[in-house]
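[SOLVED] Predicted holo structure with NAP

Edit: marking solved, answer below. Original request kept for reference. I posted the sequence and ligand SMILES and asked for the 3D complex as structure tokens.
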Amino acid sequence: MDLTSKIILITGGGSGIGLELTRQLVALGNTVIICGRDSGKLAEAARKTGAQTIAGDVTVAEDQERILSEIAAQHGRLDLLVNNAGIFLAYDFKTDPNTLQKIEREIAINATAPLTLTRRALPLLEKSAQAGVLFIGSGIAFVASPGTPVYSGTKALIHHCAQTLRHQLRPHGITVFEALPPVVDTDMAKALKSGNFKKMKPADLVRDILTGMRRNQTEMLLGQSSQIKLMSRIAPAFLFRQFAKTEFH
Ligand SMILES: NC(=O)c1ccc[n+]([C@@H]2O[C@H](COP(=O)([O-])OP(=O)(O)OC[C@H]3O[C@@H](n4cnc5c(N)ncnc54)[C@H](OP(=O)(O)O)[C@@H]3O)[C@@H](O)[C@H]2O)c1
């Protein structure tokens, strides 16, 4: 996919991986619109990168519709939707007082919202001469991670849906990409206390994602994620035990 002069929406573009994607895609001459719940954070990201902003919560249907209609009114099309917004919750399923809310919130943000937003964006994507959807998944899609009882399941769901949607949307001219990062050095990864992880720099991760997309590599296993996938095939019990040792703040 050519990554210049495109109209791009990045959810969660105000920080972490989304902010780095914004920085590199603006530098390539694209028009990047970022969304997120914290308008102060978005304004700061816009000042640093030159992106446009639309505040909104991706789990709220009206916010999804408003974000897309503002893009339709201003730009008339969408070339690339980046489903990046996400949360990562480590807790004990039995003893945490907020388990019920956490289950609902994590599934809503990480799993339901990327799919409903993609469905709602299809009419705008179909107006593009070369349209794409990029899901930011995770290498953890390949292993259940006991300390985060729901997170790895949301990424496994996204991994399956990226494949099904790739198949269904290809005839409509829409290419579905999935990037599966390892642990990346962002605010999200600060929750990780220890483990056999090397944190990848956001700038390196995004450079590899954009290189993969330019080569039309639709499934991008980044950094240690290819090892996780391989281990999940040849030594799944060992891999599970390794992840069970992870400690969180
Ligand atoms: N960091 C890692 O180690 C790692 C590894 C693999 C995959 N990933 C994935 O990469 C993606 C980005 O993670 P990150 O590390 O960059 O995390 P981050 O720095 O915490 O950024 C997450 C972004 O998502 C936005 N967001 C969260 N809930 C939202 C909602 N309901 N509506 C709109 N925006 C929302 C946040 O903005 P607001 O709070 O302002 O809404 C924030 O800008 C996530 O999908 C994550 O699962 C991360």
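OP edit: The beta strands are 7-11, 31-36, 52-55, 80-83, 131-136, 174-180, 192-194, 219-221, 247-248. Thanks to everyone who chimed in.
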